Amino acid sequence: MEQGLDMSSLIHVIGRDLTMKSLMSLPRYNYARIASLNRSFRELIRSGELYRLRSTHQVIEHWVYFSCDPLKWEAFDPVNEKWMNLPMMDTDLGIQFSDKESMAVGTDLLVIGNDMLGPGIYKYSLLTNSWSQGLPMNEPRWLLGSASFKNIAIFAGGVDRNGKIMDAVESYDSETGTWKTLPSMIKPRKFSSGVFMDGKFYVIGGISSNDSNPLTCGEEYDLDTQKWTEIPNMSPGGGGPRMAPPLLAVASNELYAADCAAMELKMYSKKNKE
To answer: Could you list the residue ranges that cross the membrane (predicted)?
Structure first.
């Protein structure tokens, strides 16, 4: 630590408040360099305080995470057109070749797959720029429907290590790194997709049993009432036992689906519920 420097002010000449405002407006890809300046800046980045301040002031950056190698990930900043190589994952061989889901939530990137001991979770922290083994779900599983909003992600359904299709639902809080069990879905399902829309969580499509019949319904979870509602005709269905989850995206609180077979982009009608 530098002698004679007031570490509480960060940039001594302008003071802590102006320092934080200046750092808050910088693109996120600069934070690794900022953390290398001295211990005070490094501890600031790792504390998460700067990210919470950005969230409060609605400073939002949408990064995209890619993996073209089982253990290698990259992040892309589409606004500034910057790439960042993440550290290599340090894990066993099992998860490399298993089905995996990934979810960016808050300052974490979660990778959920099937390792040698069953469903496993590996977590990349943007704060420390490192991978670690995350806390397991209360009911470990994979092949889930999931979506995130701010620092919360919800994971619904999936299969356990015995292949049982689940109706279990859990939320993950990136600020605490902990899991919370939520009310179960109406139908068990795997290979489903999840989205947040209008402040509610939706799980759509998938397969409910091993007879491979696809589900065309969706389910809506109200975070305030903590209740599920089934919504018919929310997914076009199709596919087979190894079907991929529906290709969905939400933009401006409107739900879109890509139909690869028909080469069409469809928008869900909330009014007509189809």
So the answer is: none
128 CB burial (10 A radius; 0-12, 13-18, 19+)? middle
Task: Answer whether 76's CB lies under 8 Å from 83's CB.
Answer: yes
Tokens of 237: 């269905």
Q: What's domain 64-267's superfamily in CATH?
A: Kelch-type beta propeller (2.120.10.80)
R_g of the chain, CA atoms, integer Å: 21
Report the 10 Å Cβ neighbour count for 222: 12
- Give the residue carrying structure tokens 């969230």: 55
Task: Give the predicted TM-score (pTM) of the model.
Answer: 0.86
Q: Are 177 and 128 in contact (CB under 8 A)?
A: no
Query: pLDDT per position in the chain (274 positions), as tens?
Result: 444 444 455 767 778 888 888 888 888 888 888 888 888 888 888 888 888 888 888 888 888 999 988 788 999 999 889 999 999 987 665 566 666 789 999 999 999 877 655 567 889 998 888 998 889 999 998 889 999 998 999 999 999 888 899 999 999 999 999 999 999 999 999 999 999 999 999 999 999 876 667 899 999 999 999 999 999 999 865 444 456 888 999 999 999 998 887 888 999 998 888 7
| Sequence spans of domains, the chain | 7-56, 64-267
Q: Are strands 178-182 and 145-149 parallel, antiparallel or unpaired?
A: unpaired
Instruction: Give CA separation, 50 vs 27, 61, 153, 158, 212, in Å.
Output: 12, 13, 21, 35, 47
